[in-house]
Amino acid sequence: AARPAIAGHGEQAQGGNGDESGPEAPGRRTVEPTERESEGSAGEADPDPSPTKGEGSDPDGTATGETTDSPSADFASLPVCDPSQLGVASASTDAPGADGTVYGSFKIANVSGTDCTVSSNGTVGFTAMGAADPLKIGVVQHAAGDAAPGLPDPSQEPGTVLLKPAMAYEVRFAWVPTDTCPTVGPSPSPTPSVDGAGGSVGEGGTDQPSGVDTQSLREDGGGTAEGSVAVTHTPETGAPTAETKIPNACSGTIYRTGVLATS
What we know:
It comes from Streptomyces anulatus. Helix content is 4%, strand content 33%. The chain has helices at residues 73-77, 214-218, and strands at 34-39, 63-64, 66-68, 86-93, 102-110, 116-118, 123-130, 137-141, 160-163, 167-179, 183-184, 223-224, 227-234, 242-247, 251-256, 260-261.
């Protein structure tokens, strides 16, 4: 499903060669989503995979893409996929590994009736929610020997993927956390509101005292703050955006691949 528009702070787009720019100056922090994006081109990886700033199953009826490292004359004669020809086939994540690493993937299908090709890696970005700190989250191009060994070797990334009708390509990613979500101390004892809200004893069916803030109750005994990161992929401007969420995530690096043929 397409990602809905979210008003956030610190939105930033990266260049098409995978190079990372420095983080923007810290702004006011709220629980509102904060989004940044990173875009890489085929076959290029960031030489310094440090945070600077984004596998599922095949959907029914989705075929696999064909690839070529050196496009033939037939490939060269085919048009590049128009944004209107592309649709989200799936967006998913696996369960976290022992070290907290989460692998996931996006699959984008040709929803038209005409053959076309894809050579752009598109954009991978993220939205930080809750306790997640956008200044401690980055997106980098996957490189051999980095912290995401479960991703395909970059040498396996084709230069071009041919998408016949219903065929899909894939972009994989890995979330590698750098720290756990922060802890919160016990909250002050909740105080009833003074506006007279709430019913008398025995009314309604709620167990929550009238006028007590739910967040205060949840954090009354302390614990880990809630944070999550939504990872997104947009094939190109004007195409639908795929999104999948990683729970219990507050700081880390997202390693992404280029376009891959599905199998």
